[in-house]
Amino acid sequence: MSIRIIEENCTGCAVCVRACPFGAIKMENDKAVILDNCTLCGSCADACKFDAIDFQAERGTGMGDLSSYRDVWVFAEQKDGVIDSAAFELLGVGRHLADQLGQDLAAVLIGNKVRPLAQQLIAYGADKVYWLDHADLERFNDELYADNLSYLVERYRPNIVLLAATVYGRSLGPRVAARIGTGLTADCTGLEIDVDTGNLMQTRPAFGGNLMATIVCPDHRPQMATVRPRVMKPLEPDSERSGRILRQQPQLKQGLKTRVLQVVEEAGETVNLLEADIIVSGGRGLGDPKNFTLIEELAQTLGGAVGASRAAVDAGWIPYSHQVGQTGKTVGPKVYFACGISGAVQHLAGMSSSDIIVAINKDPDAPIFKVATYGIVGDVLEILPLITKEFKKALGK
Ligand code: FAD
Ligand code: SF4
Fold first, then answer.
1. 380 lines ligand 1 (CB under 6 A)
2. In a domain, 119, yes or no
3. Cα(173)–Cα(142) distance, rounded to whole angstroms?
4. Residues 135 and 32 in one domain
5. Domain of 196: which CATH number?
6. What's the angle, vertex CA 119, arms to CA 111 and CA 174, rounded to 5?
7. Is the minimum distance from the CB of 282 to ligand 1 under 6 angstroms?
8. Best residue among 329, 347, 360, 381 to mutate for probing ligand 1, ranked by most atoms within 8 Å of CB
9. How many domains does the chain fold into?
10. What residue numbers bound the domain in which 282 lies?
11. Torsions phi, psi of 343, nearest 5?
12. What predicted TM-score, i.e. pTM, was given to this entire model?
């Protein structure tokens, strides 16, 4: 990709300066000048009426013949030598897509001394595992992992690359997509192949879950998507399955912008929100941080996890790791209790795919009731203890 100003065409109108979302263009002697922080988004070229910006959209990899891109890839996220369950879910849907296309399913495994994990990925459906092993790769690092995944993509030209919409996947996927110049659909809940074109149809909730958008990437490869955990089903593992494990040369470098010095596990985090079948979430309607004990007590009674709205997190009532929503975690439990939460679109974006939603709110017109399976209108501080008491009785606790 490239961009340059054609000075003889530039009239000094400065429309491009206003069009640039990154402040990466300025006027000097009545001529536009592109600055170093230009991201090559092309907005200025679209805005210019005088053809004064020569913007070449062709990316570094040179998409060329799209049919030369083959195979479905899954980024096999692992932490401390344990593969994230979301990677198995991706292999489940990836297997389906690869079979539809008549192509192979490959997993990309990056870490340190993670070779034993490769066989697990094969058992869950991978035909091949691209494996990179080095001490520097032991912990996830956005920059280094993006270097390595981009390198593999440029070298092997996969047709589809899937990552889980976890903290790691959401950071890695867009970096790689931007580097290689392709599109990425975030937070997908459905993936299918269009039988007419062979394109990947990537479905995700849009406008706060009010409609489902199906997105295609017809002109660029690979087609990249992050997929919400706990939406796709993993296959039954088959330890007899065989596949190829292909060791790759890690791409390492000095002077990384970030380094992980220490990992501190949060105390008291007993149940993982993403894994929980039952989540009890509290919002501003609790009125006081001490009332979160009511949420914790119900969650504990039911063996569930504690969630929260951003308002509760921003107020400092509970750590960010509990936040559910657009800028928090996306969850899909069997039962989600929303207690004193209004149901803003940003909150719904993270929990509306829950099987059953129970809302407790004193305002009968609160938007949360529009998505609730069961709604209780009343004071959460009175209702929560009653519910917890009944569950304790029923469960013999
Ligand atoms: P409020 O909206 O204040 O609602 C409190 C509710 O409690 C009200 O409905 C009220 O009727 C009820 N209530 C009050 N007292 C009681 C009582 N005694 N008994 C019962 N009910 C009671 N929000 C998120 O949650 N997650 C996100 O990830 C997120 N990301 C965002 C990203 C962006 C870019 C932006 C702009 C916003 C984001 N938000 C997010 C914020 C979101 O818009 C809302 O502000 C937030 O969800 C409100 O939290 P709440 O429902 O707890 O509080
Ligand atoms: Fe700004 Fe995008 Fe033009 Fe670069 S290409 S100057 S970032 S509008």
1. yes
2. yes
3. 10
4. no
5. 3.40.50.620
6. 45
7. no
8. 347
9. 3
10. 278-395
11. 100, 40
12. 0.67
